[in-house]
């Protein structure tokens, strides 16, 4: 990462070419921070996010696109949780429970609950994991969170924690290990203009501005994980979109050739965005991250993945499930795969483990303990 200041450069101000070149370098470095005035460029450049405002509009557009295509939903029905390794359990508890306002799950597991979704965290001794893009969270009150921030600044002073931007109804926060979180106040939905003048209640509820409208940021009217944005290598978004369409039968929205937004539940999306600055270090930092989803046509999905050699039993979780055979998969109602491939060439284009459960899994649409803060 290039330095932010020009004090380290000894240049002759009379040499306009040299000065102009250095100025260009400075501007490029500032732009790479993805914020208006980040105080710590080293942590700010750890992301390839499009930004909170752009991502919000894209996932709302994707939700509109989903409903326009069909009302008969296939593919992934629900994204329940994301699993991340953290560097310190006590520090993670302070960040997620005390600062962000997640609720501690009533089980013995290290689960952090937000609405009907969860972060499953682990302190394993391995390096902390970092999503290459960002995670979009809808929270009950940014006002309350802002009032808590000052009390924790010293606690996180030696970490990558940072408030990158704070813009009214949304805020961008970097977690102690470099994950970028775009936080949206759920009250944004109450400000939407209701556009339907239909006398029929259900028409009003589903039209823009209604309680069930596609343009709402809340997840089924609640806080939760609105999206996960994943930066991917140039030239891979089209292959990723095709993989989700054909293997998982998901609804896919592609506003540009270098973007793919995958519907993974009502008002929930995975966003894959190509980024030419994505480094091997960034990709390595995300290895091992997994999401838990519930999918329709479970046996058909298993067969399609198995035929391409993509079924994978995670050795870290064999105490929970295995899926080397259909009999094992059927018994646990769970399959896993981690490689997303180009269906034309068979080449691996991205790694993201999907803990994939059948709709008859006992935890489908579970309601974990959650108290808004």
UniProtKB/TrEMBL annotation:
Could you confirm whether the keyword rRNA-binding appears in this record?
no
Q: Where are the transmembrane segments?
A: none
Signal peptide annotation = 1-33
Q: Which UniProt keywords apply?
A: Signal
**Protein's name in the database:** VOC domain-containing protein
Going by the entry's taxonomy, the superkingdom of the source organism is recorded as Eukaryota
Identify the species of origin: Heterosigma akashiwo (Chromophytic alga)
Q: What Gene3D superfamilies does the record point to?
A: 2,3-Dihydroxybiphenyl 1,2-Dioxygenase, domain 1 (3.10.180.10)
């Amino acid at each position: 990462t290039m330095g932010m200041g020009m004090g380290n450069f000894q240049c002759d101000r009379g040499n306009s070419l040299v000065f102009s070149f250095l100025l260009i370098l400075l501007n490029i470095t500032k732009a790479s921070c993805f914020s208006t005035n980040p105080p710590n460029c080293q942590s700010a450049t750890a992301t390839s996010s499009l930004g909170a405002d752009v991502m919000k509009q894209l996932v709302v557009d994707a939700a509109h696109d989903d409903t326009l295509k069909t009302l008969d939903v296939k593919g992934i029905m629900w994204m329940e949780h994301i699993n991340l390794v953290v560097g310190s359990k006590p520090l993670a508890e302070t960040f997620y429970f005390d600062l962000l306002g997640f609720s501690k799950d009533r089980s013995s597991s290290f689960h952090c609950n937000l609405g009907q979704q969860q972060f499953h965290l682990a302190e394993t001794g391995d390096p902390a994991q970092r999503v290459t893009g960002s995670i979009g969270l809808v929270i009950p009150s940014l006002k309350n969170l802002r009032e808590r921030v000052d009390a924790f600044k010293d606690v996180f002073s030696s970490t990558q924690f940072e408030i990158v931007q704070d813009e009214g109804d949304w805020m961008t926060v970097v977690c102690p290990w470099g994950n970028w979180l775009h936080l949206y106040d759920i009250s944004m939905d109450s400000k939407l203009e209701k556009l339907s003048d239909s006398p029929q209640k259900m028409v009003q509820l589903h039209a823009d501005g209604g309680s069930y409208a596609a343009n709402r940021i809340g997840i089924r009217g609640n806080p939760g994980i609105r999206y996960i944005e994943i930066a991917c290598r140039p030239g891979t978004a089209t292959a990723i979109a095709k993989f989700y369409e054909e293997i998982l039968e998901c609804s896919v929205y592609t506003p540009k050739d270098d973007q793919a937004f995958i519907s993974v539940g009502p008002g929930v999306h995975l966003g894959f965005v190509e980024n030419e600055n994505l480094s091997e270090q960034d990709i390595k930092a995300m290895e091992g991250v997994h999401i838990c989803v519930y999918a329709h046509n479970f046996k058909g999905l298993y067969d399609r993945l198995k035929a391409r050699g993509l079924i994978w039993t995670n050795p870290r979780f064999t105490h929970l499930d295995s899926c080397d055979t259909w009999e094992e998969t059927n018994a646990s109602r769970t399959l896993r795969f981690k490689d997303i491939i180009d269906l034309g060439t068979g080449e691996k284009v991205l790694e993201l483990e999907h803990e994939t459960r059948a709709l008859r899994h006992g935890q489908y649409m579970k309601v974990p303990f959650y108290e808004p803060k």
